[in-house]
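look at this record:
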Amino acid sequence: MSFSSDIKQELNSLKNLSNKELVKYELIGYLLSGNINIKQKDIEYTTESDYNINRFSKLLSNLNINHNIDVSGKIFIIQVKKKEIELIVKIENDKIIIVEKNIKNQDYLRAIVRGMYLGSGSINNPENKYHLEITFSSSENLELGINILEKLGIRAKRMNVKNKYYIYIKEGEEISKILAAIGANRAVMQFEDIRIQREMRGKVNRIVNCETANLNKTINASVEQIAAIQKLKEKGMFNKLDDNLKEIAELRLENPETSLVDLGKLLKNPVGKSGVNYRLKKIMEIADEI
């Protein structure tokens, strides 16, 4: 089963249906979603997820709202009479209108977000990439969704493509927040484990890349230094160098991959990186003049 399905299974099994107000607000979240279709006398909710349809049916039953469930191929469909839904929200111009805009109760806000996510939300496998999105039935409902998430301290981005309205989140921390807000506690722990593993892999890769780059830089510099030293030997100029330059030159020939810091430690009288660098540059300058 996918990570997204695991979340919906967890949310479907939440034992929080005794609070009628929370049930009402979670139902409102469903009604905001992009899977709601308003017809002449009915409202239809469609989904391929049996978890989504089961939860929606539980909410309706809990509020004593009559509804029918049908199946068409892989699609589950719930039909509800408009007049039943209009006890909770307004319907104008084939749009769901939420009368109560300034909701402040955090539990009610979280319930709406849970309904929004179950209604038409999805999330990628976080091992591949971070991406959560929720579609909405109208631009007005999208803005309401953004506003509700902001009240919960969750940042999301909005997009409108060919009259499809949806919010999306690509930041791992914000996705973790929204999962916690909707009550998917097991999913939060799993998501955070994956985040930690990904961050650790990222750090290791950065360290390896940095070390590889530094090693390549050291090797490239070493090749130039060795070439200069060999040129001095071929031209009979090596023995004319002072003892300090000859000592570092011999050490470089013997240790082509050693860093300047470690090379300095091998001297009879050790010097730091800048001292080694100065001596090798001096050797290269002498070689260039030949």
The first strand starts at residue 36 and ends at 38. The CA atoms of residues 140 and 248 lie 74 Å apart.
